[in-house]
Amino acid sequence: MAGSNISIDAGGANAIADVITQLVQQGRNLKPALSQIGEYLVEATQDRFQLEVAPDGSLWDPLAPETTRRKNGDTRILRQSSTLVDTILYDVNDDQLLVGSNMEYAATHQFGREDDGIVAREWLGLTTGPWNDEVAIMDILYDHFSQGLPNR
Predict the structure, then answer these.
(1) Residues 51-98: pLDDT tens digits?
(2) Cα(first)–Cα(last) distance of the chain, in Å?
(3) 103 — phi, psi (to 5°)?
(4) Cα–Cα distance measured from residue 64 to residue 51, given in angstroms and rounded to the nearest whole number
(5) For all residues of the chain together, what is the average pLDDT?
(6) CA-to-CA distance for 8 and 45, rounded, in angstroms?
(7) How far is Cα 34 from Cα 140, in angstroms, rounded to an integer?
(8) 25, 146 contact by CB (below 8 A)
(9) Predicted TM-score of the model (pTM)
């Protein structure tokens, strides 16, 4: 054959096949990794609640003056009773992860409700601001897929 070529010794092919087999096996059982990601995202979302920031790192809009008066001067946003932040949870099955809250008003605060003058205060999503959820999630997935692989 003219040009460049590569030859793989059949003895080394077994090691390569073993690694590929292990990766495929790990890919068939994503539930442990998805559970770790769910735990991470719940904690990261709760941390953002304390800082009153959206996933992109922007501050939530302040409370309207009438809301602050109704709350007797309490200026904490979305945390008067802490019910919303306390009900952030995740649900995982073999190949799907859901993160959110089962409170009916969670979507109202996430997206706002213009007719009632409620501004959106995005609280759910992957952080792209001061933290980077993508990096943490990739680390979790890397750890999951590298379990049982030989050291290089």
Answers:
(1) 999 999 999 999 999 989 999 999 999 988 899 999 999 999 988 999
(2) 32
(3) -75, 135
(4) 18
(5) 88
(6) 48
(7) 9
(8) no
(9) 0.82
Using the predicted structure, report yes or no on whether residue 11 has a pLDDT greater than 80: no
- Are the C-beta atoms of 144 and 32 separated by less than 8 Å? yes
- CA 116 to chain centroid, in Å, comes to 30
The more confident residue out of 108 and 146 is: 108
User: CB of 25 within 8 A of CB of 149?
Assistant: no
Task: Report in angstroms the alpha-carbon separations of 35 from 22, 28, 51, 67, 91.
Answer: 20, 14, 25, 37, 8
Residues 6+ apart with CB under 8 A from 1: none
Q: Which amino acid is at 77?
A: I
The C-alpha atoms of residue 129 and residue 122 are separated, in whole angstroms, by: 13
Beta strand spans in the chain (E):
88-92, 97-101
What would the two tokens of residue 136 be? 């943490």
Q: 37 φ, ψ to 5°?
A: -65, -40
Largest CA distance in the chain: 83
- Under 8 Å between Cβ of 37 and 140: yes
Residues 6+ apart with CB under 8 A from 100: 88, 89, 106, 124
Tokens describing residue 47? 């941390």
